[in-house]
Amino acid sequence: MFQGSHNINMDAKGRLAIPAKHRDVLAATCCSRIVMTAHTQDRCVLVYPETEWQNILPKIEALPTFNRAALRAQRLLIGYASTLELDGNGRVLVPPTLREYGQLGKKLMLVGLGKKFELWDEEAWLTSVAESDDDELPADMLSLSL
């Protein structure tokens, strides 16, 4: 559904405009309602169509709270979650808590990842994609032919 990376700007009030090609999809699939929340591993913000968020929320709530990593994930994902609606110009106000969590400046990258987006500070995004990752690829990826 969502793919590609887009350079976008956030204004002084913390608003950003979703690129037009994605606005139409969001309008059709979730009446322009989105959920923004904290990423559990990177300093960026996850952006879900509200309908997609409603599908994954029960899975997050079902995580075992006696597991510290699962509890941290719940705290970040649910604790930072904000339901928002795009205005008539496709703009949305990023909540101050998420701006701080994601260390978002004026220049941003909106990255489509299928059913969701990641919203990054542009400099952090460029640093992240330039880093060499020594993590092993999952077995499922080793069988892919790209």
Keywords:
Chemotaxis protein chec, six-stranded antiparallel β-sheet, 146 residues, alpha+beta, 29% strand, two-stranded antiparallel ribbon
List strands and helices in order, with pairings.
Elements: E1 2-9, E2 15-17, H1 20-30, E3 33-38, E4 45-49, H2 50-61, H3 68-79, E5 82-85, E6 91-93, H4 96-101, E7 107-114, E8 117-121, H5 122-130, H6 139-142
Antiparallel strand pairs: 1-7, 2-6, 3-4, 3-5, 4-8, 7-8
Report on the structure:
The protein has 146 residues and is an alpha+beta fold. The protein has a single domain, classed as 3-Layer(aba) Sandwich (Chemotaxis protein chec). Helices cover 37% and strands 29% of the residues. The protein has helices spanning 20-30, 50-61, 68-79, 96-101, 122-130, 139-142, and strands at residues 2-9, 15-17, 33-38, 45-49, 82-85, 91-93, 107-114, 117-121. The chain has a six-stranded antiparallel β-sheet with strand order 1-7-8-4-3-5. A hairpin with a 6-residue loop joins strand 3 (33-38) and strand 4. It is globular, with a radius of gyration of 16 Å. The mean pLDDT is 94.
